[in-house]
Amino acid sequence: MYNQMNYYKIPREEWREFYQDHISPLSAEELSRIKSVNDRISLQDVQDVYVPLVHLLGLYLRSRQDLLNKQADFLGIRAHKVPFILGIAGSVAVGKSTIARLLQTMLSGIYPDKKVQLITTDGFLFPNKELKRRHLMKRKGFPESYDMRRLLLFTNDVKNGLLAKAPVYSHKVYDIIPGKFEVVDNPDILIVEGINVLQLPSNQQLYVSDFFDFSIYVDAQESLIKKWYLERFGMLLDTAFQDPTNYYYPYAIGDRASAFRMAKRVWRSINLPNLHEYIVPTRNRADLIVHKTKNHLVNELFLRKY
Ligand SMILES: Nc1ncnc2c1ncn2[C@@H]1O[C@H](COP(=O)(O)OP(=O)(O)O)[C@@H](O)[C@H]1O
Ligand SMILES: CC(C)(COP(=O)(O)O)[C@@H](O)C(=O)NCCC(=O)O
Predict the structure, then answer these.
(1) Are β-strands 189-193 and 116-120 bridged in parallel, bridged antiparallel, or unpaired?
(2) What keywords does the record list, in alphabetical order (predicted)?
(3) What is the CATH number for 244?
(4) Could you say which ligand is closest to the alpha carbon of residue 233?
């Protein structure tokens, strides 16, 4: 399945033993902060999978800073802070943003003196108006629907310690919110989450992933991802019916079965082909592949060797 040669395959039972001696149990306050990210998240998974993961990230963080300090010594310049960028890739609805929020919460808890920010690459989709002009409304999420150049410049600014503004996409409005930005101001750690973060656009010399210090690909069986997509769609409908401005309002007040038929069509004609053609091919670029099974439980991890 994966390019096994270059990965350590680690079953959950083994992974959960890693680093445990160094880890103190999560406090009640930390657990409730974690629940606030997604109240369905399994706390057993948090303890067994994500706590060791956060400690692994700590190792990469420290060794990267160490190398930067030595490089500065070599160059005879003063070492300065460079944000550590963590990329999170995977299919639509596989759970990237949930993991990203969880890691942000946990990293902030473990390193209270560090500023941990999170952005999602949805914000770099072209606005609907531009997508319509380019006849790309049925290609949302495909590489050509993103302003990748802008994302690259944004990441470059972040790495150079400059204040950078990420546009904001709303699933509720199904469009970019004009004039709304996520301001990223010299964080210690920036998490960049999106289906496209490990892609290599053909017309660029540099890739967003060149700025990453660590990357994670979230993986699962296609049939499960489809199920999670449809469940999330159901939840969107449940909130949309109270709000006539919501993009999903007409579906929410209409016939539920036909709304789900529409969602299945979108999955089949947009998100699934995108997964096959452009997302899965990036999997072997990740430093870590987190594989989930039923109920989002992680069963296996693949850590890149070299
Ligand atoms: N670990 C988890 N436990 C329970 N539900 C989850 C978990 N991760 C994601 N989900 C649910 O799965 C759906 C997709 O997750 P989301 O984070 O929105 O995916 P993505 O950002 O990849 O599109 C959402 O309904 C979310 O609540
Ligand atoms: C905006 C997205 C590409 C982003 O993906 P996500 O953050 O949900 O992983 C996706 O949610 C999307 O809108 N896809 C287009 C078809 C659809 O699902 O409506």
Answers:
(1) parallel
(2) ATP-binding, Coenzyme A biosynthesis, Cytoplasm, Kinase, Nucleotide-binding, Transferase
(3) 3.40.50.300
(4) 1
